[in-house]
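Below is one protein, fold included:
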Amino acid sequence: MAELAPQELRILVAVAETGGFSAAGTALGLTQSAVSHAVRAAERKIGAVLFSRDRRGARPTPAGEAAVAHARRVLRLLEVLVAEARAAAAPAAGGPEPAGVLRVAAFRSAALHLLPPALERLAARYPGIRPEVRVVRELGAGTAGEVAAGRADLGIATLGGSGGLPSGVLSGALLEEPYSLVHPAGHPDPRSLPFVDWDENCGSYTRAWWRRQDWIPAATVRAEDDGMVLAMVERGLGMAIMPALSLNGAPDTVGIRDLGPDGPVRTVGYVTTPEQAANRAVQALIRELRAGRGVLAA
C-alpha cells in the first residue's frame, strides 16, 4: 500500500479543522484544487472515503475522523522527533534534557490547582520545555478525547466513569479526591437549601451515590462551571456537592462538610498515547504531577 506523505497528513487535518477544501488551502497556502487532489489521493491510498462533500463544505466521515486523529498524532511525532534529536545533539552533563512544546489538556479545576505547581517545578528543572495548556470541559470525550484525537500530548482527566477511555490511550491515577457538602458558612440547615449543580460535575459512579441519598434533591439551579457554583453557594443561593480540587482555596464564607467514609470520590489521572508515553517531556511532567499529589492536603 502506498504511504501517505506528511503534506497529505497536514492537508487532511486542515480540511477537518477548517471544514472545507478552500479554507484548508488558504490556511496552508495551497489552491483549492491542490487540496482536493491531495484528499482524493489519500482516499485512494487508504481505500476509504474520508470526507463527505456538499455545498456547505467537507466533514470527516467515521473513517475520516480516525484518519485525521492518526494524522495529528503522526505529525506531532515528527515534531517530537526534531525536538528530541536536537536535544540529543546538544552536549549536556548527564545526557540530553527534554525540550520543545508540550501540549496539555486539563479540566478547569485541575488546570487551576493541580497543573501550576507541577509546571513550576518542570520549568525549574527543564527550562527548554514549553507547555501549552488548554482547558477542556470534561464532557463527552473530554480531555482524554483530545489526547486520542492528537490535539494534546497529555491530558489530566477524570478516570473510572462508565464511558471509559477512548481506545488506544494509556492512563495512570494521580490522586483520589473526596466530595464534600458545600454550603454558606454558618447556615443552620444547609440541606434545606436549593441544590446547585453543573453539567461537568463528576461521573456516573458518583451520581449513583447521589441517587441513594434521599436528602439530595434534584438540582434547581445550574451553573456553567464549578467556579460559578462556588460563587452561588457563597452568596447563599444554595448548597452543592463538590470535589476537593474545586474547593482548593475556597473562601471562609463557604462551609465544607465531610460526607463520611462512604462518601463519593473521583479519581484524577493522566492520559496519553503509547507513542507520547516515550516523549521525554511527557514523562517529565508525569513525574512532577506524581510528586505533587499532596496538593489536596495542603
Remarks:
- The chain has a mean pLDDT of 90.
- The radius of gyration is 23 Å.
